[in-house]
Design goal:
Blueprint lengths: L4 H10 L8 H12 L7 E3 L3 H26 L21 H9 L10 E3 L28 E3 L5 E3 H8 L41 H4 L7 H6 L8 H17 L3 H18 L2 H4 L7 H12 L4 H31 L5 H7 L15 H23 L13 H27 L1
Antiparallel strand pairs: 1-4, 2-3
Helix pairs in contact: 1-11, 2-5, 2-15, 3-4, 3-8, 5-9, 8-9, 9-15, 13-15, 14-15
């Protein structure tokens, strides 16, 4: 029996498969404050095919920069196969599909021209089947998406806000060899490192989580936890954003930046930077050993408690942020935590080489306190929004202040780079 089997089942079914549910709403509140002293730039909507057609000679060099960086950072990453690279075009080449394959993302992703209606605005509704290939649409059915036309002028903030949500629509689905897809067999990511490969949304988990500070024994017994890829995505989309700005495509500059921000924001979530907060390595191993000899209750309880607290904070955050934007309750403590950063709370984006220290370490360190506070609330699941003074808002405000802080720092650095 392989030693990793001791905890592989436990980790497979306890690691949640989502982070912040409402990236667009959170980013709306951040930008509402962050850009309030300057006029928001207007940009011209441009199809991805148009961008790729004009800049196809520069794309592969940009992707190679990211891959060279990632290969040095992620020992488990393999090189992109030559046949997948963005090169050797013919008259019949589908540039968008080839681009997605060169990125090693879902080649069926629909890069439609749209904005998410945050807050509500009028326009032609974009059907969900033109936005995502997900079979289970989840909370997307609660959102409104407005179709854009090629050449239409739109605020850069609306592009960014919408793009921060987009990677969850299917960009990282079915990319492993044990997923139900053809590309998983050629992309080179191997078998899915954790999460359930048979579950649609779970297949994206290793691209949206980063575990770097677990005890040595956990990594020894479960080395697969190191096989995560959010840093690859952040680097890829950051470099593409810089290229787009440099070449005169600001719409895609902001949209790619929003894609990169999605993964950064995910990593500010403690449950995405820590496997099982407050559960010691010995306990993780112990309950799994006990379950292997027939005593399933301790393991089931652990799964229920940890996943329940994660689900609670995500569900609550989603509905709270939506409510605060609709009611324009800008004085709510969670809104002020997001929007009001003091000068001494602002930080400088030091680049991807320091992401694990600046973002992931902070989230990991917040995990135990957050998990304990959520347990003490004694709220088994989301059912209603509470009064402003409820302690859940203190917990959520603290977490989202960190999300706000790192989002602002990244955008400031991006603006300076072009």
């Amino acid at each position: 029996m392989k030693k990793t089997f001791i905890i592989i089942t436990l980790l497979t079914f306890t690691i949640p498969n989502f982070a912040w549910n409402n990236h667009a709403g959170i980013t709306y509140l951040i930008l509402k404050d962050h850009w309030k002293t300057q006029k928001t730039p207007m940009v011209k909507a441009e199809s991805l095919n148009s961008f790729l057609s004009k800049e196809k000679d520069s794309i592969q060099a940009t992707l190679s920069i990211s891959e060279d960086w990632a290969l040095g950072k992620l020992p488990h990453l393999t090189k992109t196969k030559d046949e997948l690279k963005f090169q050797n075009f013919s008259r019949d080449t589908d540039l968008v599909t080839q681009f997605f394959k060169a990125l090693r993302v879902n080649p069926k992703h629909k890069a439609s021209l749209y904005i998410q209606s945050v807050p509500k605005r009028n326009g032609t509704i974009l059907p969900l089947d033109q936005l995502t290939t997900l079979n289970e649409k989840g909370k997307l059915v609660n959102e409104t998406f407005i179709a854009l036309k090629e050449g239409q002028m739109i605020g850069a903030d609306e592009v960014l806000i919408s793009a921060t949500d987009e990677p969850d629509y299917d960009l990282d689905l079915h990319l492993f060899e044990d997923n139900v897809s053809d590309v998983g067999k050629v992309y080179g990511f191997g078998k899915q490192s954790f999460g359930n490969p048979a579950v649609e949304y779970s297949s994206q988990a290793p691209f949206h989580m980063g575990f770097f500070y677990e005890p040595t024994i956990i990594f020894t017994l479960a080395g697969f936890l190191k096989r995560t890829y959010p840093e690859l995505r952040i680097h890829q989309f950051t470099e593409l954003s810089k290229l787009a700005f440099k070449k005169g495509h600001p719409y895609w500059g902001y949209r790619f930046a929003g894609w990169a921000l999605h993964y950064i924001q995910d990593l500010t979530q403690p449950y995405h930077s820590s496997v099982l907060p407050r559960v010691s390595a010995s306990k993780q191993i112990g309950v799994q050993l006990v379950s292997m000899v027939g005593y399933q209750t301790p393991k089931d309880n652990m799964i229920q408690f940890v996943s329940g607290r994660h689900t609670l904070i995500e569900e609550y955050q989603y509905y709270l942020i939506k409510n605060l934007i609709v009611t324009k309750n800008w004085n709510h403590p969670v809104v002020t935590s997001i929007m009001s950063l003091e000068p001494n709370e602002r930080i400088e984006w030091k680049g991807l080489d320091d992401l694990r220290v600046n973002v992931c370490r902070e989230a990991y360190d917040a995990g135990e306190q957050t998990d304990e506070q959520l347990e003490n609330l004694n709220i088994p699941k989301y059912e209603t929004l509470y009064e402003e003074s409820h302690p859940i808002h203190t917990i959520l405000g603290s977490l989202l202040k960190n999300t706000s802080k790192h989002t602002r720092a990244y955008l400031d650095a991006l603006v300076k780079s072009y």
